[in-house]
Amino acid sequence: xxxxxxxxxxxxxxxxxxxxxxxxxxxxxxxxxxxxxxxxxxxxxxxxxxxxxxxxxxxxxxxxxxxxxxxxxxxxxxxxxxxxxxxxxxxxxxxxxxxxxxx
Length: 103
Hints:
Layout: E1 2-3, H1 12-19, E2 28-29, H2 33-42, E3 47-50, E4 60-63, E5 66-70, E6 76-80, H3 85-102
Parallel strand pairs: 1-2
Antiparallel strand pairs: 3-4, 5-6
């Protein structure tokens, strides 16, 4: 899932176009600003909005970027958005090992 933090810009078509730039199967989610802020807070995502406009005439927006691996029993791991595939694979193998050991 890709969760937008800017429902004002990220309508379903914009999310679809963004996700289609990557070689992944993902669903784009957005919602009302209050709900999005609640999700961002729950996952520790930093969001800052700046007055003024960017080069395209939109409000400037900065945010942290993470990949979250959600597993059973409410456990999760986060990786930086710049994580390399080898590191993601290593972390997945570790999580699967830990999950099996916990059973």
